[in-house]
Specification:
The complex is a heterodimer. By secondary structure, chain A is an alpha+beta fold. Chain A is 23% helix and 27% strand. Chain A has an 8-stranded mixed sheet with strand order 2-35-26-1-25-9-10-24, with helices on both faces. In chain A, α3 runs parallel beside α15, α8 packs parallel to α10 and α9 packs antiparallel against α10. Chain A starts with 31 loop residues before the first strand and ends in a 15-residue tail after the last helix. Chain B has 2 domains: 136 residues, no CATH class; 116 residues, no CATH class. Helices cover 46% and strands 21% of the residues of chain B. In chain B, strands 1, 3, 4, 5, 8 and 9 form a 6-stranded antiparallel sheet that branches. A 3-stranded antiparallel sheet of chain B has the order 2-6-7, with no helix packed on it. In chain B, strands 10-11 form a two-stranded antiparallel sheet. In chain B, a hairpin with a 2-residue loop joins β6 and β7. The longest helix of chain B has 45 residues. Chain B is elongated, with a radius of gyration of 25 Å. The two termini of chain B are 33 Å apart. At the A-B interface, β16 and β17 of A face β4 and β5 of B.
Chain lengths: 635, 277
């Protein structure tokens, strides 16, 4: 999922000195382990399709298959941070895709934060950094591969979510979900058209730009990073020149010395853009793909988010820093953006379902190529490999286009088969998912519910709407507000700016909200909307609760917080039918959407949870769990 | 021009074929010969006496800088004189450099077809473009030419007319190793352009012409194929990948080898030729 709140500030760290790690000779006394992370792999879907997923089925029959208890809330950055650290969210401190700044109640990216250089020198319109900026992970705790590294056990960790920038270590690692694009956002596409009927200029995670085709030529301005070398931080750009043929449904695109000819309906290979930041001194390399959707009567061109170029990365996306170049040299260019499946353009109606499937299959194909490369060179220690396709495709297909989703499951089943093939007798193979899936039929405007229940007030009762960031909320009369996909915050005195709920009132207000949430009924058919309300003090063992919401709303299957809720809007209706392309989700009550755990041998634990996976990995190499880890080995 | 280009390519082709088993060695031989040629031209066209004198001056000023470190006025004067002597030295080099410039530029553009371009990789797409001759008609657009590819090469797109630049482009993809001709039919005329495709390294180095041109002047810089006979087409180009020349276990762009080896040869042989550089 892409939250519209980008991490633009991350680009201030483009001058970052990349942390490199040297390799040292290690071995794991012959012990080997392959762990495949299949995001969102759903137990119900698996159980309905064992017969066409032979490798996963083989694991179930000859090894073991369990439902895997997910985290509160069941969101990928939260859940994978638990796998990474062995701690619950109260330990690692990641509670949602977005957190909020209590001073402004504005959303902030939960996985990483950046800081600009402390010392700069201004020369005319330019600013020369005299010290490095930095990007740091917001996750607390040591990763399991850092701990393995301490014990001399080699590991390759590819695309672990919430691992940007990648944890410093000797392991070969590539960052995954949370890796920004060159604009510093979680992924912003651009759609160019000369169709006057297209009046939108922005959609979630995308821009729509009107262009003029004159004398068979149109300049498409591609935006790159904010230029930290300029006082005005102006966005660096490059011009992609489109030359649509006068009558044929084809066009040529020129970018610098590169050319690509596309027919209508074709995707380009990667194009390299060089964004000039400081003349003759500094530029930033990015890569993107073009999709020529239509040539006549109107030009319609989709340009992907500009990804960090793995051959010349401007941001720290791998350890060692040279590892992404090694992958690029061996495999060609690849998506580096954390979540690259173009769900946003599909949701916005700019790409059709078939066009989305073509794009998402390109990502899966890239991913399988990289997986095979890693599997081929795996000889000792641990290989962790993560696939996003099962999750991102499920969001758009689950429960409605099951045959299309099954194709994705079959592809990752093939990868599981290759891993089993590679595994020797003493190799442990685990396949896990962070959560399952359910239909997302009804979008709950939680702030509107708070308004109607009297916990939130507006400056004027008529000021409801889709305006984000609590545009009309009267904080002097507001006790609670919702932001993110499961979080609900009290407007606390001394914590929130202008908060009104005192420490003595806190439990009473929270308890009242929880009781009313559990009584919340869908006005359309009377179904219960919320199944569970979780309080961090009781749900988590960890006490790193600084960024935690005051409660988490666990919706029943079929219900989820609306997109408007996630960014602090207060629409006029309490609930809407979900009519968008994003038809399934998992941000519900945790027990409604468990993940899966498959192993190539029997498990001892009956009800494993995500944190057990971390301890299991350590235990397989004879490494004891560290303080703060809450799991136990599943074997 | 076509005859000259063909003759030079023929000569270079003989060396290229002779060292087909070790193209890096062939390039080294050509580079060393070019270095010797440079020395000879330099000897004949430069003022050796003046170069000798100015080099002695440079050495003297450097010595001055070392000896009179405690004399700021002398140091300042020595630095000015050093700069002036260097400029004079560069001036003396200018004449032989200008005389050598054209023949060496011609040699380099010829060598690029032998060592600078790799054949198209089988399965990899590339772009074929042509520049239309004549002037554009206001408000109109040119008729679409027809591209015919030899067996083993797929033409994947229709002709895309780039109206504002009077160009036409196609995307092609070799599906098998090919050494053949593309044919472009435009307004009753036919233009042929060679195409080379194959797995790099498998069939050895290849002569890979890049751009085929019509005008005499352009043919100086794109000499690999006979000029286009019809005024309807200015040029035809296939975008080939860059090649690297491997020798002694090192893979480098051919120009790096050429400059390095020719310079080395010139430096090693300058005393034998009684040349001061």
């Amino acid at each position: 999922m892409r939250a519209a709140c980008g991490v633009r500030g991350l680009l201030a760290a483009l001058a970052l000195v990349l942390a490199g790690c040297s390799h040292r000779a290690t071995h794991a006394a012959g012990k080997k382990m392959i762990v495949l992370g299949l995001d969102g792999l759903d137990p119900l879907f698996l159980e309905a399709h064992w017969d066409v997923l032979p490798n996963l089925n083989r694991m179930r029959q000859t090894g073991d298959f369990k439902r895997l208890t997910t985290t509160v809330p069941p969101q990928s950055p939260v859940a994978w941070s638990t796998v990474t650290t062995g701690m619950d969210p109260g330990g690692h401190g990641v509670f949602d895709f977005v957190h909020r700044d209590p001073a402004t109640r504005a959303p902030v990216f939960s996985m990483a934060e950046s800081s600009p250089p402390k010392h700069t020198l201004g020369i005319g319109p330019y600013v020369i950094p005299l010290s490095s900026g930095s990007v740091t992970s917001s996750r607390v705790g040591r990763t399991f591969w850092q701990i393995l590294d301490d014990h001399g056990i080699p590991s390759n960790v590819i695309r672990m979510p919430a691992n940007f920038p990648p944890a410093e270590c000797e392991a070969d690692s590539l960052s995954g979900m949370g890796t920004p694009d060159m604009m510093g956002t979680t992924g912003t596409f651009t759609f160019f058209t000369d169709d006057p009927a297209e009046r939108r200029t922005t959609v979630p995670a995308g821009k729509i730009v009107q262009v003029t085709v004159s004398n068979g030529r149109a300049a498409l301005r591609i935006e790159g990073p904010p230029n930290g070398f300029r006082r005005d931080n102006a966005t660096a750009t490059v011009d992609l020149i489109a030359h649509p043929d006068p009558t044929e449904a084809a066009a040529r695109f020129d970018l610098g010395g590169q050319q690509v000819v596309l027919r209508q309906g074709e995707w380009s290979e990667w194009l390299r853009a060089d964004f000039r930041l400081l003349p003759l001194v500094k530029s930033a390399a990015g890569i993107f793909r073009i999709y020529l959707q239509q040539v006549h009567p109107h030009l319609r061109v989709y340009v992907s988010p500009v990804n960090v170029d793995p051959a010349s990365p401007e941001l720290p996306i791998s350890t060692p820093a040279s590892f992404s170049r090694q992958l690029s040299d061996s495999l060609g260019l690849f998506y580096t953006q954390g979540i690259a499946e173009e769900t946003s353009a599909y949701r916005a109606g700019l790409l059709s379902k078939d066009e989305f499937l073509v794009q998402s299959h390109k990502i899966l194909s890239d991913s399988l190529r990289m997986f095979r490369y890693e599997l081929a060179r795996f000889s000792d220690g641990l290989l962790f490999y993560y696939f996003s396709s099962t999750d991102q495709n499920a969001h758009m297909l689950w429960g409605k286009y099951d045959n299309d989703l099954l194709e994705v499951y079959r592809a990752v089943d093939g990868a599981v088969g290759e891993a089993l093939e590679k595994a020797a007798k003493d190799t442990t193979v685990l396949v896990l998912s962070d959560h399952g899936f359910a239909r997302f039929d009804r979008a709950v405007h939680l702030n509107t519910w708070l308004l109607r229940e009297g916990f939130l007030a507006l400056d004027d009762p008529g000021n409801t709407g889709d305006q984000e960031l609590f545009a009309h909320v009267d904080w002097s009369r507001t006790q609670a507000y919702a932001m993110g996909l499961n979080g609900l915050y009290l407007n606390r005195m001394g914590r929130e700016n202008g908060g009104i709920v005192s420490d003595s009132e806190r439990q009473q207000v929270a308890g009242m909200i929880a009781r009313k949430l559990l009584e919340f009924r869908d006005p359309r058919d009377g179904h219960s909307v919320v199944g569970k309300v979780y309080f961090p003090e009781t749900a988590f063992q960890g006490r790193n609760l600084k960024a935690a919401p005051d409660m988490f709303v666990g919706y029943h299957r079929g219900y989820r917080a609306s997109w408007q809720t996630a960014l602090g809007a207060v629409p006029s209706t309490l609930m809407d039918d979900n009519t968008q392309g994003w038809i399934a989700d998992h941000c519900m009550a945790s027990d409604e959407v468990p993940g899966v755990l498959l192993a190539n041998r029997k498990m001892r634990l009956e009800n494993p949870q995500l944190a057990d996976v971390t301890v299991t990995i350590l235990s397989e190499f004879g490494v004891p769990k560290e303080r703060g880890m809450i799991g136990q080995t599943v074997f | 021009m076509d005859t000259f280009n063909a003759a030079l390519d023929f000569l270079l082709g003989l060396i290229f074929q002779a060292f087909r088993w070790a193209p890096g060695l062939g390039l080294a031989v050509i580079s060393a010969a070019a270095g010797v040629g440079m020395l000879w031209v330099f000897q004949k066209t430069s003022n050796q006496a003046k170069i000798r004198a100015v080099k002695r001056l440079v050495q003297a000023h450097l010595l001055e800088l070392r000896i009179y470190q405690d004399e700021p006025a002398v140091m300042w004067r020595a630095q000015k004189s050093l700069l002036a002597s260097n400029l004079r030295y560069m001036g003396l080099m200018l004449q032989p450099a200008l005389i050598m410039g054209l023949p060496f530029a011609i040699l380099l553009v010829h060598l690029d077809a032998f060592y600078g371009r790799a054949p198209l990789a089988v399965g990899a797409e590339t772009i074929v473009s042509m520049g239309l001759g004549g002037a554009s008609e206001p408000g109109g657009h040119p008729a679409a030419p027809l591209l015919e590819a030899p067996p083993g090469v797929a033409v994947e797109t229709p002709a895309v007319r780039v109206v504002d630049e009077r160009q036409v482009s196609w995307r092609i993809r070799p599906q098998a190793p090919v050494s053949g001709l593309l044919r472009i039919r435009v307004e009753g005329a036919t233009v042929e352009k060679s195409i080379e495709a194959g797995t790099p390294g498998q069939s050895g180095p290849r002569f890979v012409p890049g751009r085929k041109v019509r005008s005499l002047w352009d043919a100086v810089w794109h000499p690999d194929e006979a000029r286009i006979p019809t005024p309807k087409v200015d040029w035809v180009e296939i975008r080939y990948p860059d090649a690297r020349v491997q020798w002694l276990g090192i893979r480098l762009h051919w120009l790096v080898w050429f400059i390095g080896i020719s310079m080395l040869a010139a430096l090693l042989l300058k005393k034998r030729f009684h040349v001061v550089l």
